[in-house]
């Protein structure tokens, strides 16, 4: 769950243009449900033509988007096409009910988080980044929303290089939401705002990948590991200095982290291990 972009193909937007807007969604039993603000043009468009497409990227803090822009890259994302089906009032209540349950369980996880987790989260400075906080206003009834079920017909994964990979429909139906997704933006921000944790990322690049990084940011986290953007030398110039470029590195976990607590533990363990390894190298300053 989180933010996503909604692109709905529409016949009556000026001169065959495509209208797009940001909508909120949840996944329930592998199916996306969308909340579209009452004032959004999509509500009219869908009556005329129910075909739709969605672009979904995993949530990350704003500063990373600027970094991507400077690298002339786009974050990896999922593109799905299909049609939207407006929900009847009783069905809306059911979907709202599961949204409420998810939010409660996530809030409980945050409240009961042990020291390792709250340590990472406390350096996060984003005001509304956990998924629950983003979705809460849907239930508060501050604004009116139309709720739709998204009926999928195709799905593509677009990687950071813009390469397109078709995703099997059965794989989507069987897929589960990553257990870290609801807090990922807060985790990433918490790590990037901490000098010592960023130094640890630089160390990971050196110890685990033999990459001599100048700086590093957490880019994404999931149960299987994490991605780091690191500033590494690309080439040596004539005067002996190096030119630096931002590059993406993947660090897989030995064991999957099935909750936020395990994720933070794995990270701390890797930090300790890396420090131990580096202090083992003689002559390193
Ligand atoms: C869902 O999509 C399939 C084709 O992808 C279509 O046959 C079916 O009628 C759609 N269902 C609804 C309720 O629109
Ligand atoms: C890329 C990114 O997210 N950068 C942020 C990481 O955290 C620092 C705070 O230490 C911010 O200043 C950066 O914008």
UniProtKB/TrEMBL annotation:
A Pfam family the protein falls into: DUF2470
Taxonomic superkingdom: Eukaryota
Signal sequence segment: 1-16
Domain DUF2470: 197-270
InterPro entries on file: DUF2470, Haem_oxidase_HugZ-like_sf, Split_barrel_FMN-bd
Annotated keywords: Signal
Record flagged with keyword Amino-acid biosynthesis: no
Protein name: DUF2470 domain-containing protein
